[in-house]
Amino acid sequence: MISREEALDLFRSPDIIGIGMAADAVRRKLHPERVVTYIIDRNINYTNFCTEYCTFCAFYRPLGHAEGYILPKEIIFEKIQETIDLGGTGILMQGGLHPELKIEWYEDLLRSIKKRFNIHLHCFSSPEIVNIAEVSGLTVRETIARLRDAGLDSIPGGGAEILDDDVRHRISRLKCSTKEWADVHLEAHRLGMRTTATMMFGCGETYEQRLNHLDVVRRIQEETGGFTAFIPWTFQRESTALGRFVKEEATAVDYLKTLAISRLYLDNIDNIQTSWVTQGLKTCQLGLRFGGNDVGSIMIEENVVAAAGAHHCASEEELRRIIRDAGFIPKQRDTLYRTFYLM
Question: How far apart are CA 299 and CA 94, in angstroms?
Answer without folding.
Answer: 14
